[in-house]
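Student: I would love a firmer grasp of how sequence relates to backbone shape in proteins. I am handing you a single protein, as its sequence and its fold in token form. I am told such tokens are a discrete way to write the fold. I hope you can help me see how the letters and the tokens relate. Take your time, and here it is.
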Amino acid sequence: MKRIITLVLAMLMGIACVGFTACGGSDKETLNVYTNSGFAPYEYVDKDGVVKGVDIDIMYEIGEVLGYNIVINDIEFDQILEEVRKDKLAVGAAGMTKDTERDKIALASISYATSVQYVIAEKDTFDSALVGGKLPLSALENLTKKNIGVQEGTTGNWLVEDAINGTEDDDGKHVDGELEGKDFDFSTYTNAIIASGDIGDAIGAVVIDKLPAQAIVESNPNLECYELDAEPESYVLYFNLEAEKLVEDVNKVLNVLIEKGVIDYFTIKHSGGIK
């Protein structure tokens, strides 16, 4: 299946190994991919200790089509953009939400997936608090343990931090957060899998993206996840600020992967729908 996808991509894009360093040769340039493996199904470690996932498959397809040797580097999430900033042939591929602050230090690809934030908690914690099938952020104030776990540097981290500490509007005026003044705190973790292990002990809940939340709950019958009533977010790949041509080429590949349903296929596969 993988080889077929790559051949189709090459034909659709009109790529015939022209302009790329050794398509099929031994002197391919290396494209370093920086990720964090605690974010299934986008990236995770399988039983053999190999990093796999939706983002990993996407990057191998990009490498095949554009003629790069792909090297996967599994590091802390909040270090990914720092590595990308050092290297023109580097990419952050870790279910990364497009964000204005990130856009200041790295180049974003087109969006290849969307997600929303979910809350993981013990079963039946929020069943009566749902409004239209979604959980208002203010409902977290009913947690017995006033501490929320987040993966450091993620959208969930920023969302919870703003809810607890408040934000500023465009005029610099303070805007109260939904949980501000309610004795809440948050704890940062390297990934949501580790954080979820502390639910009911050190923390009352975890806030993380939809598919990782569902994957965690699927393997833990004592937990349940709820969609937060918050704006959806777009996933992008992030590149060095000087890698304009690379981003342009990658966007062409991503467009075909999206249009032909290949990314949907990868998502279903890594979510357990395709064996």
